[in-house]
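sanity check this fold:
=====
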Amino acid sequence: MVKSLYSGVSGLKTHQAKMDVIGNNIANVNTTGFKAGVVTFRDIYYQYKINPSAATATLGGVNPAMVGYGVRLNSTNANMTNSGFTQSDWWGDVALDGDGFFQVMDGSGTIFYTRAGKFTVDDYGYLVNAQGYHVLGVTGDSTNQEPSSEIIRIVVPATNNNASSATKRVNGTNVTISVSAPSNYTNMTVTFTEADFPYATYDNGILNIFFNPDEQYNSQDDFEQAIQTALQAGGVTLPDDVSLQFEFETIPDDREAAAAKNRVDSFTVSTQTAEYQLHTTYQDDAGVTKHAYMTFSVNDPTCQDKVKISLVERTDPDDVETATYADGTWTLNIFNDSTASDINAALKKAMDLYDSEGTDYSKLVCDNLVLPSGATQRQTVFADLVADAADGVQLVGGTATGVTLDVQVQEAGAFGNNYKIVFAYKAGYGKTSAIWDENTLTVTISADSTVTDVNKAIKDAANGNPKRLLSFNDISGLDYGDDFPDQKDPENVWQPVFRQAFFGGNPAIRPMDGKDSFFTETAKALGTFALENGRIGSEQSFRDLTDILIQQDGTIIGLHAVHGYLVLGRIDVATFDNVNGLAQVGGTNFRETVASGKPKLNVASTGGAGAIISGALEMSNVDLSQEFTDMITTQRGFQANSRVITVSDTMLEELLSLKR
């Protein structure tokens, strides 16, 4: 009877142990990575009341009769089934989707195994769990490394000195702008803007460079000098007193600027009269420039006679000017004091003489060859003029062809393509002028204008503006020296009558094919550069990473502003043949036992190990419905065993009362 008491006690003790496990399970219902305990019982030894015997020829066999003496705890295994996951925003929260355990090591070097992946990095760069245990795997670059149990330490390489820079494709080549020295303060935005004058502003890391787009840049040095000029004009000092530098990946062979120019040939100018002017200038007594000229004109548009003027001395006061004609040439003998009327009288006398002789002089001479009476000159000037013309001049009628205009912009650059030059004629002499109206230049030419006169007028009109400096290399027939063409090439003669006929029609010309230099075209297209990566080198730590992530195979990847993506280590996974053989040691940690066998190390998601999920934690696998059910059955078992003790006690009491 006493034995039943002890059986009841064993029942109470085992059910109390199971209740302890149930209570622990329920307490850890929200513990990360917790594995619920599962309790099993087993009965205790038995006492034979009847021994078993085998059957004989005369008697059957006897079965044993045995009485048990209670119950004891058989096992408290952990339920190793996987649970669900809770999501988080922390890269160090990791869970295993499948079999296996994370490896952690305490300060004494003991390795434990856990499903709770709540990791962080300590001040020394070690990857640790919530208990401060080191997480194990491969440290550093884990590429092609076998799974391991090394302590993982996050090491970020130091940065080296670097000057901030930016590269972009401009004008068909890669252009790099960089600062001259490393600095922590020159990661700035540099913007290039066209303006009339160089200038610069700097505020909050934004540098604005204003430059003159009309200036021609012919080298990298020109660029850097232009920036320096702008900085000085704006009073800007760059951080750390660095300067900006340019680098061009490729520079074409034809990088120089080309001047705009134009040449127009084969104009045709027609007039009803032909005339020829002899013209010179002289200084009067007051130093004023004056003009002296002599004009011959004909009415016959086919006239191509020559006039030869000879200056002779007057030996007799009665000597007069004479004119003779022979072989298509008029020969005039005149004196220092000859006037236009005197010369015309000589011409008329010669024509009358031919006419009185019955000769059709119109077939021999130009009809009505005259020197306008208004063309009187000072004697000394007239003498010089006619002496210079002693070799003869051509009288050309009607039509002149082959006229040429040849103009070129002096300052190279594409801006010359925007200009238009218009010619005009103004009667008289010494009246060459030029004036700009926006992008149109009007050049006014008089009867005696030369290329030199035109170029001087254009230069004066430009008023120092290099964009408006033009030069005429040739205006065929306009120069004084062209007034003496060869007899066989009369169409190139440019007589005053043709000046008026041509320029009075306002001919126009446009310089074309001007091209900026390669560097100038690049300057106009620079736009904005965002300079970056400038720094003074220093030691780096985990805190200098801008982002970090853990891949499914456990590889730890860090993003650094300078180094980019870095492989910092790998969390490896341990598996066991008998996971139920592991011993629970608290802190959701398990320890290897002889029953579990040695761990097998694997890269996550390989070799039967689960994949690592970053930003998630494994929940407890405690099933409350199961726990509450087990609690009820445990309570009933405990109550029943207590009743065994109570009844046994009552029976003993009855037994003891027999002697009363």
